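Let us practice reading a record.
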Amino acid sequence: MLSSMALRSAFKSTSVVLRECGVLSRLKGTCASLRLRHGAFTSVTTGPSHSNNETALTGIGSFTIQSVRNYARVVRKKKPVMKSQLSDLPPTMLKMEYAAVPLAQTADDLVKRLLTLELASHSEKLKLKTEQLIAKVQRDEADRSSTEVKVAILTSKIRNYQEHLHKHTKDKANKRWMLMAIDRRKKLLKHLRVTRYDAFEHVCQQLGITYTFPPEYYRHATRRWLAKKALCIKVFKEVQKQKLEQRKKIKQTPPPTLAEPARTAATGTQ
């Protein structure tokens, strides 16, 4: 009896010791893995392992860490850098509202930085660029509503939309506004080309616009329309064949002689 009780107490003490050893070994394994640098993880085992492909806990007192697989990332193609229309504006140029002020030329350096394009916003630079384009094509200094001036304003807007969409390709609203501005400019250029061709050439040359002629006829090609067109072509070819056969038959038949109409006239008199 006493011997069985002693054996039971010995088994309990040994099981507690084994459990404590297993917990300590797990803690040691995790600490060892944390010390390693990123990209240099290796399988750390603290205890007997039963197989080489062991990637998880295999029993009491054993712990493994799977190594990190550094897969190659897909190389993204860099977008070509689009040249901005505002790049030719020097930062030392005065803003549009201070260009005619004589005191702005003799101001302090710190004040000059505030009055020039060095600290100007994008909208201020765009206004100045638009005024430069208008000055190239306007008829006189007071001209603000002619067709040439409208084309210059729309050209500045279109190029600004293009620069924005080059960076933000999923901006649908700006894309819609850009297409509307392109259609409006196309109509104005078409009208200017019909009415004043010399002004049309001057505007295209000064603003760097390449005018492409619209197609004479355009129709959205659907399956029904393509099938109908193929049927019409087939019927047209068959009709042409029938007409050709009729012409051949007419050529093969001999022409009537002069005796035959005389006989018919004689029979008619009788």
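A brief commentary: The helical segments are 2-35, 109-115, 122-137, 147-167, 172-195, 197-207, 223-252, 259-269.
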